[in-house]
TrEMBL record:
Residue ranges annotated for the Carbohydrate kinase FGGY N-terminal domain, each copy included: 5-242
Organism: Calidithermus terrae
Pfam families the UniProt entry points to: FGGY_C, FGGY_N
Gene it is expressed from: xylB_1
Tagged with keyword Protease: no
GO molecular function, one term: D-xylulokinase activity
Protein name (Swiss-Prot/TrEMBL): Xylulose kinase
Superkingdom assignment: Bacteria
Length: 474
């Protein structure tokens, strides 16, 4: 039996999955914090990420017993930026997609926004490298000059495991520096930014061998010495792969943030630059959009309003309370923008708002309004990217909550198919590493059907949501 290991390096936790003959044989995970000490800050200490990665690989190896893996591949969270010196030592914590401080430099970037989008598939916005690099250069000029390379967190972990520096085309295409048509660093973009290409990494395809597990890392993880390690791709792209989505099929992933993605056979761009287009590998692209505040919002609601419970019990009570409230949350409207927003607004200055609060409302209404708010944000992307589709696959932490999945089905008025995988992004990475010989894990849960009678209820509630946004922010 050929077994592949997928290592998924997410925003707040890493996961490892072993896949063989279409079955998840073992799975482990570890959490790590975001550093959020000042307004807009959302950074990661990569030493903590690396330590968690080593720990989950060691635990996975113990679960596998005598089963020998054939390879390991990566799934990485998009848009992280880490400055390293010539020895590969991090010079500061890594900026994540959720860090809104680079939004302060957008007005001074020396790039025409629509031209940059047409070349890279990335809107000229705060999560991408043009803004991150300009902000880093302004806020920390000495650090910027000391940096030998600018890399993703996944690239750093891969370097520590193998001793080789290389990027993958999927994550590289989420930087805003890679040409989405040619699959190479865009020389015009780099020239406009004054960034020599030598400060970026060589770019590999998703299935290219990056290297082999080093002796030190084989000892630390218990995995075989010389285990082949493959470049991998972005967590979003590999979630689609792990969910078994073919060209044209849609997948929504809900975790800390949320995203809607379709695999397409050629780059697909939107005239207003409200969505994005990235590589999955050199033969396939992803057209999609992402929202910042999904699990992030629910964690905030849990910690503020259900803090008397242990974490898992608090979430369970939140979902139970929300399910008991009528659709539309009895007129309560919540704008979920705790950390700004990406698609379709691309504004880091947005903040969250609760409107329509009355004496009759309780924390249960806030919970319901929060779940509906995330669904309304995804509905905006659904109408832009997937007109006419009546079915969507669903991955991520939302699949553990039937009430939240039903709200999404009713808001979209589409069939929702939860994918029963340990983690779709990690499964997709494991498939790249040789674990796909038996196919992918089949959905074990029945699809959720939309309730047509709730369509007018949610049209009215979403109308309130969008009217409130317009009054406050347009």
């Amino acid at each position: 039996m050929e077994v592949g290991i997928g290592l998924d390096l997410g925003t707040t936790r890493c996961k490892a999955v072993a896949l063989g003959e279409g079955r998840v044989l073992a799975q482990t995970r570890r959490s790590y914090p975001l550093l959020q000490g000042e307004p807009g800050q959302a950074e990661q200490d990569v030493s903590e990420v690396f330590a968690a990665a080593v720990a989950v690989l060691r635990e996975l190896r113990e679960q596998l017993g005598g089963v020998k893996p054939a390879g390991l591949a990566f799934s990485g969270a998009m848009h992280s930026l880490l400055a390293v010196d010539a020895a590969g030592t991090p010079l500061a914590p890594a900026l994540t997609w959720a860090d809104t401080r680079p939004g302060s430099v957008l007005g001074g970037l020396p790039l025409p926004p629509l031209e940059a989008y047409r070349r890279t598939g990335c809107p000229l916005q705060a999560p991408y490298y043009p803004a991150k690099l300009a902000w880093l250069r302004r806020a920390h000029p000495a650090l910027f000059e000391r940096a030998s390379s600018f890399v993703a967190i996944k690239d750093y972990v891969a370097f520590r495991l193998t001793g080789r520096w290389a990027a993958d085309v999927g994550l590289a295409s989420t930087t805003g520096l890679l040409n989405v048509h040619a699959g190479a660093w865009d020389q015009e973009i780099l020239g406009a930014l004054g960034l020599p290409p030598e400060r970026l990494l060589p770019v590999l395809d998703a299935t290219e061998r990056l290297g082999h597990l080093s002796p030190a890392m084989a000892e630390a993880t218990g995995l075989p010495l010389g285990l082949p390690v493959y470049a991998g791709s972005s967590d979003g792209g590999l979630a689609n792969l792990g969910a078994g989505a073919g060209v044209g099929e849609a997948v929504i992933t809900v975790g800390t943030s949320a995203a809607l993605r379709q695999v397409v056979a050629q780059p697909r761009l939107e005239p207003g630059a409200r969505t994005w287009c990235y590589f999955l590998d050199r033969q396939r692209w992803l057209a999609g959009g992402a929202v910042n505040n999904a699990g992030l919002l629910l964690e905030w609601l849990r910690s503020r309003f259900y803090g008397e419970y242990p974490r898992g019990d608090g979430f369970a009570r939140l979902f139970t309370d929300a399910e008991a409230v009528e659709p539309g949350a009895e007129g309560l409207t919540l704008l979920p923008y705790l950390s700004g927003e990406r698609s379709p607004h691309w504004r880091s200055d947005l903040s969250a708002t609760v409107h329509g609060l009355r004496l009759r409302h309780t924390r249960a209404h806030l919970a319901r309004a929060g779940l509906e708010a995330v669904a309304f944000c995804l509905a905006q992307l659904w109408e832009s990217l997937c007109p006419g589709l009546e079915r969507v696959k669903l991955t991520g932490s939302i699949t553990a909550s039937p009430p939240w999945m039903q709200i999404l089905a009713d808001v979209l008025q589409a069939e929702v198919v939860p994918v029963d995988a340990a983690d779709a992004s990690a499964v997709g990475a494991a498939m790249l590493a040789g674990g796909s010989a038996g196919g992918i894990p089949a959905p074990a849960n029945p699809p959720l059907q939309p309730n047509p009678s709730l369509a007018p209820v949610y049209r009215e509630a979403r109308g309130r949501f969008e009217a409130l946004f317009s009054k406050l922010w347009e």
